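step=predict obj=Fanconi anemia core complex-associated protein 24 n=215
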Amino acid sequence: MARNAPEGTGPMHVPFGHIVANTKWRGSKLLQGMQGKIKIVFEDGLTPVDFYVSSRSCILYVTEADLVAGNGYRKRLVQVRNSSNLQAIVIVEKTQMSEQYFSAIQKFTVLDLGMVLLPVTSQMEASCLIIQLVQEQTKEPSKNPFLSKKRTLMPELSLLRTVQQIPGVGKVKAPLLLQKFPSIQQLSNASIRELEPVVGQAVAQHIHAFFTQPR
């Protein structure tokens, strides 16, 4: 197997249908949830990356403990964001304990860095999500509903999930918003008047406040 670049942010050769995992996750609940469903290859020196799902697609995992501990996770995200070689997804544990810190990482990841973010409530939920990502990556483009116009599953799925996390939006209103405002940039620049016809006045105010409050 080809190793990654010395900085840990270069392309990685990932065998078809496999996931390459940082050895620090060996024995974790996250990996236990994947065993028997996808093939796992462990690799040393992946930092700051936690997993590779394809040669140029990687996952950074932010745990509940990482969020509670402060902003230490930001250095990892910036390091991968600055690599032009990788498409990264950030998976974040949003639990009762870490929920108060979630808005900060969501805004930093999506708005400041332009990266994709998916919240999970547990490592077992994350396992299911990662399995789905790996399985979709292995599909032929013509058979993968998420691969259209050269856009991969991860931005499509993460954008929807990110919009769902905005206060007052949820699973029903998120697709409606994305039909009208197909990117985070367009949504963040929308006025309350532009948002109201789609989601109503109250939710429009929530969305506008989410994007305009100081980070």
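step=describe
Residues 64 and 98 are 6 Å apart (CA to CA).
step=end
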